[in-house]
Amino acid sequence: MEKVSQMADSFTLEITSPSGIVFSGPMKHVRAPGREGSFGVLPSHTPFITPLQVGVIEGKKEDGADLIFATSGGMAEVHGDKVVVLAETAEEKTKIDIERARQSRERAEKRLADPEPDLDTERARAALARAMNRLAIAGS
Q1: What is the fold, at CATH topology level, of the domain defined by 11-93?
Q2: Where are the domains of the chain?
Q3: I want to staple 108 with a disulfide (CB 3.0 to 4.6 A). Which of 15, 38, 120, 127 is the partner?
Q4: How far apart are CA 110 and CA 93, in angstroms?
Q5: What is the pLDDT of residues 121-132, one digit of tens each?
């Protein structure tokens, strides 16, 4: 008798930031912002580890609901039936503080427009990218 292999129809996604686990649950698929480009994961995906950049982590939960998080980078590991994201920051779309993100954008733009001699321009550009990402995901 031939053995028939069955593929799983979901996997566990765990998103962790320095403040703790921000999401853990069953997923049908997920897309994340890899440093070399966006990547997608489906159940029974080949294992890998990759760095993340500023962007959006999105997917479909097992119950059909959408998952959308803003992230500012980190690492992702796919292994077995689990995807672990160790994020520098991760904010669910509905919990993004739009006013705070606008203020962050304005501060970064001001610093870059009129730089002081000791300004860390890479840090200011990174702050601007994070603020713009949060605003784009929040729809503002």
Answers
A1: ATP Synthase; domain 1 (2.60.15)
A2: 11-93, 97-138
A3: 127
A4: 26
A5: 888 899 999 999
